[in-house]
Specification:
Blueprint (H helix, E strand, L loop, with lengths): L27 E2 L2 E3 L5 E4 L2 E14 L7 E10 L4 E7 L4 E6 L2
Antiparallel strand pairs: 1-7, 2-3, 3-4, 4-5, 5-6, 6-7
């Protein structure tokens, strides 16, 4: 029978594992229902209470990976602030947490 050597109790704790959080505020796919004008009415099944701001970003049009997005800063019915955007190049909606 083999036995493991006992660890001495030195009072030092093992180093905790640190998980990588990924990129801060990384966009996530979102389920968005839109009005006739293309503005969000629901985000992930939650009703939009207020559209605070809207803007468009068009960049890198000269590259193989252009960016064309329509952004909305929103307040949801729960009071949560969020930013959503429609990626025109890929036809998908994404969400990012607001401040």
């Amino acid at each position: 029978m083999t036995s493991e050597p006992a660890q001495a109790s030195t009072g030092s704790a093992q180093k905790p594992r640190v998980r990588s959080a990924g990129r801060v505020n990384e966009p996530r796919l979102a389920l968005v229902e839109v009005a006739f004008d293309g503005s969000p009415q629901r985000v992930n099944r939650e009703r939009v209470a207020v559209v605070r701001e809207e803007w468009r970003v068009v960049d890198r049009w000269w590259t193989d990976d252009p960016i064309s997005r329509r952004y909305f800063e929103l307040v949801l019915e729960s009071g949560q602030n969020t930013v959503v955007f429609h990626d025109d190049e890929h036809g998908r909606w994404f969400t990012q947490r607001g401040a």
